[in-house]
Design a protein that fits this description.
The protein is mainly β. About 5% of the residues lie in helices and about 65% in strands.
């Protein structure tokens, strides 16, 4: 928790905060009454699902070597944004299935709605994200013994609400988070802290974040010419609780040692950073076009989760997830 508090302080001091995982809010510039914005582009995504369980074990040699076999791939991104008086709506879709192969398939739908300027200097935005990721994974002991291998799938659902109480670019919010995926876990003997059994299982993580958002793209009027830096940053601090899904235990030998109760709450930190250069111009009075190139980095860090189960064993797990890579967007505005 000290690490999370310090990270919050540093981020709020440097940026005082915007954006989120696999999606972003539609721009809500109060100077624009009615407009249509279409963005079409690509994002070269690197996705890393990493086990960090070895950090919490008495002997790191007991940690499984887990390889999620996820490769870099190019994702298609399309976004439609509509502004009408005090309402702003966004729908965005990402998909890399056309060239993902066995390296990891990603698709994501992001729907957002914003209420603008009904109260001076007060904007409210809500968003829902649903994503699915598929890939291949394998796990083996440090001695080289194969534990399990095959394909896997994950599910991610996010609900966001964010309020901009002072201006169009600094906001505070709340996020509900649900993530299901396979990972390594360890059953610890409480008498000597030795690993009784290591295994792979599907986990369902549920929890929340308090978010701090900063986004200078909201200062750029879509109808104006603009050449310059665009950037956004979102920091979230909160807690997640993992629940083992017994019916999805990959190593069935461990199923009898598990129960379906939640593991203890784990302090969690996420941040999403996007930096780019945007060139926007007017072709005619009511139609504009533009191009934006940049880089995006997203990471979620989950501290150790553990619980003492009904059989007297301590179950522990820990992980990180990252999405990052360069992007290019073409924009048409009316």
């Amino acid at each position: 928790m000290k690490k999370i508090i310090l990270s919050t302080f540093v981020a709020s001091t440097i940026l005082f905060g915007s954006d989120s995982i696999l999606g972003e809010f539609g721009s809500s510039n109060k100077k624009v009454s009615n407009s249509i914005n279409l963005d079409i582009g690509v994002w070269n995504i690197d996705w890393e699902q990493t086990s960090s369980s070895s950090e919490m074990l008495k002997d790191q040699k007991d940690a499984l070597d887990v390889d999620y076999s996820i490769e870099s791939s190019l994702a298609f991104v399309a976004s439609l944004k509509l502004n009408y008086h005090s309402l702003s709506g966004t729908i965005e879709y990402k998909d890399n299935s056309f060239n993902a192969g066995d390296g990891g398939e990603i698709n994501s739908l992001n729907v957002g709605l914003a209420l603008l300027d009904l109260i001076p200097y007060f904007t409210v935005e809500a968003r829902y994200i649903k994503s699915n990721f598929n890939g291949a994974m394998s796990a083996m002991t440090q001695s080289g013994t194969d534990v399990s291998s095959g394909t896997f799938s994950t599910k991610l659902q996010i609900s966001d609400i964010i309020i901009y109480p002072f201006n169009d670019y600094l906001g505070f919010g709340y996020r509900n988070y649900n993530y299901e995926f396979p990972q390594d876990m360890y059953i610890i003997n409480n008498l000597d802290s030795e690993v009784y059994k290591s295994s792979l299982a599907y986990f369902a993580y549920e929890g929340y974040f308090y978010t701090l958002a900063f986004d200078n793209k909201k200062l750029v009027n879509p109808r104006n010419n603009y050449n310059g830096l665009v950037y956004s940053f979102t920091l979230g601090v909160g807690e997640l609780s993992p629940k083992i899904l017994p019916s999805e235990v990959i190593d069935s030998e461990s199923a009898s040692t598990l129960n379906s109760s939640y593991l203890g709450d784990s302090d969690t930190l996420f941040y999403d950073i996007q930096v780019g250069y945007s060139y926007k111009s007017k072709k005619r009075k009511d139609i504009g076009y533009g191009i934006t190139a940049g880089y995006r980095y997203n990471k979620i860090e989950v501290d150790e989760s553990s619980t003492l189960n009904e059989n007297g064993y301590n179950i522990k797990t820990k992980f990180n997830t990252e999405f990052y890579g360069p992007f290019l967007d073409l924009n048409i505005r009316y």
